[in-house]
Amino acid sequence: MGTCLILLGLLSICSLCFSQECDQEFIENVDFLGSDITTLYSLDARHCQQLCTEHPSCLFFTFLRHDWTRDNSNFYCYLKSNPSLKPNVQIPLQGVTSGFSLKNCPSELQQPCRSKLYQNVDFPWADYKSLFTSSDEECQRVCTQDPHCRFFTFVNGDFTPETIRYKCHLKHSWSVPRSPVKREVGAVSGFSHKLQKTQYFGTVCQGKLLLNTDIPGHDIENLPAASAEHCRALCTDKPRCTYFSYTSDNFQCYLKGNPSVMVTRAKVGVTSGIPVHFCQMDNSWLLVSHEGVSFQGSDLRFESMDDPDTCQRTCSTDPLCQFYTYFNESYSNSAFRGRCYLKRVITAPAPPKVKKLNNVVSGFSLKSCV
């Protein structure tokens, strides 16, 4: 119960952040000291601000720029929040930029076009494919046209060793929401009907589901998912995923990678399938409400509502909300009954690491620019 009360307090605090004004300005060479909730890598203050905006509880941030010299923490993006809803301590500090979430700026919530190329900056890790291209511009074009690519690093003609010059490394981060899933009587959960779709395929495909069928082995990742269709969306989003198996009793999505063979066997309660390739994913999985299912954490805020349909509509009209959980009159804890929890996770392109490296160029896909 104590944990629940703490959670309620934090959620109430978070709900207050939406009453604050929109503040898009950056503050150069000023640190918002303390109040850190997590640290991510970022390219610049604008990207760090986008990560803060998409994080469910971030209200403000401090970014360590390329000219930060005190240590090797360049490109650190410190996401921050506190009960006062604003930085308690601001101190002068060379090499940092601070600012605020854009949660209260509805016109700024769309994925921005990131066409800039970053010279002598590397995105280590997250690679799923590499090839040789004649220039960084061509590497960016390849990334834009590849359905899985969200950012890239190109090795230019002056790099050492010579054997990997002109190599274009395509990289991936999740664009489909992920959340822990729990079976709870009295809970109803679902997704926003307006989740951002891929902008580069017109044709809609459904993929293939195999009921009461397991594909054993070849696991590359295990994630929670609300349904087999949600699992299929996760497999479609993962470059190395060739097929998947989903177990409905524990909401587990097993992403598998073997492009050579697919051996199936009958198994009750397991749904397997094949992802969608080079077409728009069918969005029917977003329209399903899951009775007796709760999405855990990632709360933006909660509101009191009469029914789960109103909760779903509220999530779909809120540009920040990706998924929701509603607690109806049969939920065991009366304090939660009638509450609609609006939720999201970061799905902006986010390199797992950023560092300085001579003679490489990094950048993002231009899919959001069309």
What does this structure look like?
The protein is 15% helix and 35% strand. The protein is α+β, with helices and mostly antiparallel strands and 370 residues long. A five-stranded antiparallel β-sheet has the order 1-5-3-4-2, covered by helices on one side. The protein starts with a helix and ends in a 6-residue tail after the last strand. The model is unreliable at 1-19 (pLDDT under 50).
Task: Give short descriptive properties of this protein.
single chain, 370 residues, alpha+beta, five-stranded antiparallel β-sheet, 5 helices, 24 strands, 15% helix, disordered N terminus
Fold blueprint:
Layout: H1 2-16, E1 27-32, E2 36-41, H2 45-54, E3 60-64, E4 76-80, E5 90-100, E6 118-122, E7 127-132, H3 136-145, E8 151-155, E9 167-171, E10 181-191, E11 204-205, E12 208-210, E13 213-214, E14 219-224, H4 228-237, E15 243-247, E16 252-256, E17 265-266, E18 270-274, E19 280-281, E20 290-295, E21 299-304, H5 308-317, E22 323-327, E23 339-343, E24 355-364
Parallel strand pairs: 11-19
Antiparallel strand pairs: 1-5, 2-4, 3-4, 3-5, 6-24, 7-9, 8-9, 8-24, 10-20, 10-22, 12-18, 13-17, 14-16, 15-16, 15-18, 21-23, 22-23
